[in-house]
């Protein structure tokens, strides 16, 4: 069973066991037991959906501390272009870039710059005759890539086998810093400013690469707080932006797809919509589409749960910044670059929902699950601590729950044992049967 570092974690002290999270997890990775949520690590894809919906803020993303800057002789910030949409009345991206130096970084390298190069590389890759299945699926969103790994085995061959712009930005930034400073590569700290926990996870446990090119990641919300205090005093930026509208456009839904200059693409945002589209691809319903851009967050990376601004507002700000920019300021130098960006090993299906290693035993368990499911009410109420009746049936068969954890099964047992009385009164009001005279 695959295990790796997770940025998404649970604060048990804040958790009230309300079951809100189990209803929104796209991989059914959360259960509530004994009044507290529990994250099944093998199923979690670090999409951050539970962080968004938790009313008690009991889910959080673990990111690096700014104290890590002192571990290196020279530090570089890699700002995601979604950072630019967090600030009101911003007319010059250079103010943000200069602000990053003033809060402790020695240099700044825009991820948007690398995004333009990756767009060039993707266009070239798709024009070449290769064995990648159509439609080609973007590998830019790590949450979506992990979702495919765990839930859509037929589509692992559709995912484009190269790393995201942040990885290329880290490679280029470190190389540039070595030439500029003379320091050894390990003496230079390269840190991503991330809008989501999935990309924090990538800095520790990358998909497709043996080791992530960056050294860590800081929460965009934390960096925003530090930047607000210094940006108001910046009149003349020291650093000028190095990316055009193509690179900055990657921060919003459709930006990556438009950069391919091919109308036969589909851009999807929101993890629920992503799942629906992936199911359609499996059913061969999207044969006319050549490229699929997937974003786990609503409106793209500007909707990440580590941002501070409403994603729709941030998207509008990004578009306004893009309005007067050149189309692109960077062109791919394919010699040596693609090799550094190509995945070192193929994407492989990780069967986290496997019932048993023995096929016959697994089939017997499946029959048992289906049989138990017939006896359940099918309301998916979540009272048992599982997201659905089917998930509860699986938990029972696998030994993680008991049959009478279902409140409806418990009601029937109480009626049988007592012989008198109406056990319906112990059910929550929405699930009680109507009595005579009641409306």
Give an account of the 3D structure.
- The protein has 439 residues and is an alpha/beta fold.
- It is built from 16 helices and eleven strands.
- The strands form four sheets. The chain has a four-stranded parallel beta sheet with strand order 6-5-8-9, with helices on both faces.
Summarize the structure.
This protein is α/β, with parallel strands linked by helices and 439 residues long. Helices cover 37% and strands 10% of the residues.
Q: In which order are the strands of the major sheet placed?
A: 6-5-8-9
Q: Estimate the global geometry from the Cα principal axes.
A: globular
Low-confidence stretches: none
Number of helical runs?
16
Helix content: 25-40%
Query: Which range does the strand content fall in?
Result: 5-15%
Structural class: alpha/beta
Largest sheet: 4 strands, parallel
H-E order: EHEEHEEHEHEHHEHEHHHEHEHHHHH
What is the first-to-last residue Cα distance?
Answer: 52 Å
Cα Rg: 24 Å
Number of strands: 11
């Amino acid at each position: 069973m695959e295990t790796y570092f997770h940025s998404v974690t649970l604060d048990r002290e804040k958790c009230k066991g309300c079951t809100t999270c189990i209803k929104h997890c796209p991989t059914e990775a959360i259960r509530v037991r004994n009044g507290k949520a529990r994250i099944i690590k093998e199923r979690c894809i670090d999409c951050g959906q539970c962080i968004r919906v938790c009313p008690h803020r009991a889910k959080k993303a673990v990111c690096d501390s700014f104290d890590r800057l002192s571990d290196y002789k020279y530090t570089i910030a890699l700002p995601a272009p979604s950072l630019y949409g967090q600030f009101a009345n911003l007319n010059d991206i250079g103010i943000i870039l200069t602000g990053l130096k003033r809060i402790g970084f020695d240099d700044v390298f825009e991820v948007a710059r690398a995004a333009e190069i990756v767009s060039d590389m993707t266009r070239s890759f798709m024009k070449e005759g290769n064995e990648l299945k159509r439609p080609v699926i973007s590998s830019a969103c790590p949450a979506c890539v992990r979702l495919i790994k765990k839930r859509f085995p037929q589509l692992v061959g559709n995912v484009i086998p190269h790393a995201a712009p942040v990885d290329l930005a880290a490679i280029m930034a470190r190389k540039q810093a070595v030439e500029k400073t003379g320091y050894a590569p390990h003496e230079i700290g390269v840190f991503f400013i991330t809008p989501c926990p999935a990309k924090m996870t990538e800095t520790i446990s990358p998909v497709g690469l043996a080791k992530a090119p960056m050294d860590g990641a800081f929460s965009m919300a934390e960096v925003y707080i530090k930047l607000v205090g210094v940006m108001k005093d910046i009149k003349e930026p020291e650093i000028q932006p190095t990316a055009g509208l193509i690179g900055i456009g990657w921060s919003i839904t459709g930006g990556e797809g438009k950069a391919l200059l091919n109308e036969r693409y589909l851009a999807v945002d929101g993890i629920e919509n992503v799942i629906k589209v992936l199911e359609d691809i499996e059913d061969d319903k999207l044969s006319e589409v050549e490229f699929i851009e997937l974003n786990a967050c609503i409106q793209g990376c500007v909707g990440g749960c580590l941002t501070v601004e409403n994603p729709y507002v941030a998207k509008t700000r990004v578009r306004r910044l893009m309005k007067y920019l050149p189309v692109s300021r960077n062109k791919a130098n394919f010699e040596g670059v693609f090799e550094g960006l190509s995945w070192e090993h193929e994407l492989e299906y990780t069967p986290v929902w496997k019932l048993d290693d023995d096929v016959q035993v697994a089939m017997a368990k499946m029959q048992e699950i289906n049989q138990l499911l017939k006896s359940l009410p099918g309301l998916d109420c979540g009272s048992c601590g599982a997201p659905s009746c089917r998930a509860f049936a699986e938990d029972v068969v696998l030994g993680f729950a008991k049959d009478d954890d279902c409140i409806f099964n418990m009601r029937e047992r109480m009626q049988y044992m007592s012989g008198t009385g109406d056990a319906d009164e112990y059910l929550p009001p929405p699930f009680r049967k109507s009595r005579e005279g009641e409306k």
